[in-house]
Design brief:
It is a single chain. By secondary structure, this protein is α+β, with helices and mostly antiparallel strands. The chain is built from six helices and eleven strands. Strands 3-5-4-11-8-10-9-7 form an eight-stranded antiparallel beta barrel. A two-stranded antiparallel ribbon has the order 1-2. A hairpin with a 5-residue loop joins strand 1 and strand 2.
Length: about 250
């Protein structure tokens, strides 16, 4: 089955500049597409991640962050997974070092993970933030726009357009919405990239209401915003489990 990915931008000859003109480096990500085992709820998985896994990561000083993306409204062929367990690492060195620590000391956590979830093998990638600061919240709606570039457009065009779009979203709604650009690397074809938009519930509700009442469309037209791609939107609820500050 095809998988919904974040970018492996570290493999691409593309750089991104945040909204305060500071270059943003890509980070490594591993995404597990999972179904909940019988009798297991999303809350059970989040409690495990924000409890035992967070404690283990802190004790062993692991450079990692972990989120659970709960599928809300997802298009085919990405709609089979109940949740996506997503780990982020600043570098490939951190990715391999963390894996070694879990292999040597975390077998009980791996066993508990498998009791809760049935997952496919992870897809490895990197995520590149488009804004200067991440929006950090225990829960935040997360829109993934699965996109194919329009004729004549490049990934650099897509990154610039997504960054401009986030700026116009926040300016026109007075919300605080962040975003990333995601491009497929290993094990998937069929789209060019995924643009993500996320924020606290109140801000994302404000944003989605601006789509509903067409005020965002009016603001985009006024700014002569030109999209770089044709996209299909999916919605998740992102649950923060481990945040080590990267």
């Amino acid at each position: 089955m095809k998988k919904l990915l974040l970018i492996l931008a570290c493999l691409l000859p593309i750089s991104v500049v945040a909204d305060d003109h500071v270059p943003v480096e890509p980070i490594i990500s591993a995404i597990y597409e999972c179904t909940l085992n019988e009798g297991v709820s999303v809350d059970d998985v989040v409690a495990f991640g924000s409890g035992a896994v967070k404690k283990f990561a802190s004790k062993n000083e692991l450079a990692m962050n972990s989120y659970l993306w709960e599928a809300v409204a997802v298009n085919e062929p990405y709609n089979e997974a109940d949740v996506r367990w997503v780990n982020y690492y600043p570098t490939w060195t951190d990715y391999y070092a963390t894996g070694a620590v879990f292999a040597n000391k975390g077998s009980n956590l791996v066993s508990k993970f498998n009791e809760l979830l049935s997952c496919e093998k992870p897809v490895i990638m990197a995520a590149q933030n488009l804004m200067s600061d991440l929006v950090v919240a225990q829960q935040k709606p997360f829109v993934g726009s699965v996109c194919n570039l329009n004729e004549g457009k490049s990934m650099q065009d897509a990154m610039m357009a997504s960054s401009q779009l986030i700026g116009l979203m926040n300016e026109s709604t007075d919300a605080n919405v962040g975003g990333s650009i995601l491009t497929p690397a290993f094990g998937i074809t069929g789209f060019d990239y995924v643009a993500t938009f996320y924020g606290e519930i109140k801000d994302m509700a404000t944003l989605m209401d601006s789509v509903r009442d067409r005020s965002l469309a009016t603001a985009l037209a006024k700014a002569d915003f030109q999209p770089a791609a044709t996209c299909v939107n999916d919605l998740h609820m992102s649950h923060l489990m481990v945040h080590q500050g990267q």
